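Quarterly update from the structural biology core.
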Amino acid sequence: MNNAFSVPIYSLSESNPELISSLGAGKKGLFVLISDVDWAKFDAFIAKILKAIDFDIEKDVCIFPVSVGKTLAWSDLDGYPSWSHLWIAGEKLLSVNMDIQPYQWVSIHQKHIIFTHAIAQIESNASYKKLLWDALRMMFIE
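Predicted structure, tokenized:
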């Protein structure tokens, strides 16, 4: 059984700056792409996850709630030079053309990136919670 996400191909040629509304200062360089629906429902759950790895959601992290049906291009993130880690919580939030193993950190353009299931799925599934915790712990604690 293949557990890879097959990420669809989207145009990478044009940036959509109107999609880039962020929350938080991002001082520790962690950016989180999440659907705006999941952010509205699960912001406290996300804050709890981040607190467990010693990240303050307002100071250390930059959250990008992406409107349903919209997809960000890599170039949309280029205007934020201080980020080093990107957590993509759900499918079709960032346009990339590659197969991704969920919960496995990959390096692209000197940035560490992890793709996971959507927060709503993680919150209701103990296996997904463990996979996320293990990945975050490996990158930020150990």
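The helical segments are 36-52, 74-77, 119-123, 126-140.
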